[in-house]
Automatic annotation (TrEMBL):
It is a multi-pass membrane protein. InterPro entries: Na/ntran_symport, SNS_sf. Pfam families: SNF. Belongs to the sodium:neurotransmitter symporter (SNF) (TC 2.A.22) family. The chain crosses the membrane at residues 12-32, 44-66, 87-111, 150-167, 179-201, 221-246, 258-283, 316-343, 355-373, 388-408, 429-447, 467-487. Keywords: Membrane, Symport, Transmembrane, Transmembrane helix, Transport. NCBIfam families: Na_transp. CDD domains: SLC6sbd_u1. This is Transporter. It is found in: Membrane.
């Protein structure tokens, strides 16, 4: 570990903005609206809010406490809980590496589409333009050439991300989020106001929020609600442990978790209003139902929305604002994902922040560019994203909760630590939700996902391609984690053992005066 004093957030507001910036990402804009629409509409908000209260917030609080108490990146924090548990931390670091490598590519696409929106370069067929003219996509597993139109903006995305990280937690990450989050709210607020004034917007909103109460009797709807909460709060892959490790000893953890959790959910609902207002307009224009247009992910952002932009008054302005919003939301999340790796390298090797940023950045930029800015990048990204989310993040979260709650029985210790400084005290409800509800839900999600996986190949991709691009990626991060955990720590930087449970040691930095 580094012998230098650990960095600190400048203010509690700075930490909250960073945590919100990490949670509010591309998934809030292009995943939540469709998930809600496809799982009961307005009725979906019932299991969604229950999932937030019974699993999302309890797990978020646990990660806050672990990060603040042990003042380390995930490998160091879990090592202090128990030496064998260090592998969980490295597993989360490896997951972040894979996600960062392809997440940056989507931001590069959004950067290009800001320019494409000005003169609606996609023409009459946005789908053909996106896959063919822009990405020059080939067959799954084919990597025959680089795509300059993706490679150059991708390098720009990495440059901006690494510059922010170069300046550290307070002067880099905190400052960037103080600028980006208000800007994102302004941009997206303008988009939503414009969207709800479009002809047909009410039909879109009715399609989204009209409750189908019968859907609540379906187990898949509840699985979808819990899955959305886990994936959207940035929990399960070490980000919040890392961010909380820069908090002061007297920080309010439960209050911060409540603010971050409800802010994230509020933005998701706002995104749903904006997206379905626009889909309602498009449906009215074409004389079809909203269900014929409703989609999510890459198809929504880079195919459906360009088609809508071409049809609406002032479409160029709307398109620029929409894709700028995607860039900003994605950038704040990307910074947090890469920070997990930077912190792990700092803690593990004793390198300075700048050296850690440089080493992580060079490797990530190279992997991201070589793998995803080619003609095979689209299918590789799609498969990697699916498998690392389903069998990386969700499984890592399940293992971490089971180990902390049942194998190590550390929840009462973490509960006392949080209650010592938090406004909202954790009672037995927290122990029950985290120790029973969360593991059961995550376990069922894994079973349900595997059953679907073995019924048919994801997206109909060839088995050989999924073998290495899907299962290989998901399994590879675990293998890498085990190998990293076996490397001995430097003697002067060794941490962990029973003494660590006495509580975190105050660092020599001045106490916070503004929290």
């Amino acid at each position: 570990m580094s012998n230098q004093p650990r960095e600190r957030w400048g203010t509690r507001a700075g930490f909250l903005l960073a945590a919100i910036g990490s949670a509010v990402g591309l998934g809030n804009i292009w995943r939540f609206p469709y998930i809600a629409y496809d799982n009961g509409g307005g009725a979906f908000l019932v299991p969604y809010l229950l999932a937030l209260l019974t699993a999302g917030l309890p797990l978020l609080i646990m990660e806050y406490v672990v990060g603040r108490r042990y003042r380390s990146s995930p490998p160091g924090a879990y090592r202090q809980l128990s030496r064998p548990a260090e592998v969980i931390g490295w597993w989360q670091v490896a997951i972040c590496f894979v996600i960062a490598a392809y997440y940056a590519v989507i931001l590069a696409w959004a950067v290009r589409y800001v320019g494409f929106s000005v003169n609606e370069s996609w023409g009459d067929d946005p789908n053909a333009f996106f896959a063919g003219d822009f990405l020059k996509a080939g067959e799954p597993g084919t990597f025959s050439k680089f795509v300059p139109g993706v490679m150059w903006p991708l390098l720009g995305v990495w440059l901006v991300t690494l510059v922010i990280l170069w300046f550290g937690v307070r002067r880099g990450i905190e400052w960037a989020n103080r600028v980006f989050i208000p800007t994102l709210l302004v941009f997206f607020g303008i988009l939503v106001v414009r969207a709800i004034t479009l002809d047909g917007a009410s039909e879109g909103l009715n399609a989204l929020f009209k409750p189908d109460w019968d859907a609540l009797t379906e187990g898949s709807v509840w699985v979808a609600a819990y899955g959305q909460i886990f994936f959207s709060l940035s929990i399960g892959f070490g980000i919040m442990i890392t961010y909380a490790s820069y908090l002061g000893r007297k920080s309010d953890l439960t209050g911060s978790a409540l603010v971050a959790g409800f802010a994230n959910s509020s933005f998701e609902i706002l995104a749903g209003i904006g997206v379905f207002s626009v889909l309602g307009f498009m449906a009215a224009e074409q004389g079809i139902g909203v269900n014929d247009l409703a989609t999510s992910g890459v198809g929504l952002a880079f195919v459906a929305f360009p088609q809508i932009i071409s049809s609406m008054p002032g479409g160029a302005f709307f398109g620029v604002m929409f894709f700028l919003s995607l860039v900003i939301a994605g950038l704040t999340s990307l910074v947090s994902i890469v920070q997990v790796q930077v912190a792990a390298v700092e803690d593990r090797t004793g390198l300075s922040r700048k050296a850690a940023v440089l080493s992580v950045g060079v490797v990530l930029t190279a992997v991201s560019t070589l793998a995803f800015s080619t003609d095979g990048g689209l299918t590789l990204l799609d498969a990697s994203d699916h498998f690392i989310n389903q069998y990386g993040i969700a499984l890592a979260a399940l293992v971490s909760v089971v180990v902390v709650a049942w194998a190590l029985r550390r929840l009462p210790l973490l509960q006392r630590d949080a209650n010592a400084t938090s406004a909202v005290r954790l009672g037995r409800w927290w122990l029950f939700f985290l120790g029973v509800v969360t593991p059961l839900v995550l376990g069922w999600m894994m079973v349900d996902s595997l059953r679907t996986e073995f019924d048919e190949n994801y997206e109909g991709y060839p088995t050989s391609f999924l073998g290495w691009a899907g299962w290989g990626v998901a399994g590879g991060v675990l293998v890498v984690a085990v190998l990293l955990s076996l490397i001995p720590w430097r003697r002067h930087g060794d941490i962990g053992g029973p003494a660590a449970d006495a509580g975190p040691v105050d660092d020599p930095q001045p106490k916070e005066g503004s929290r």
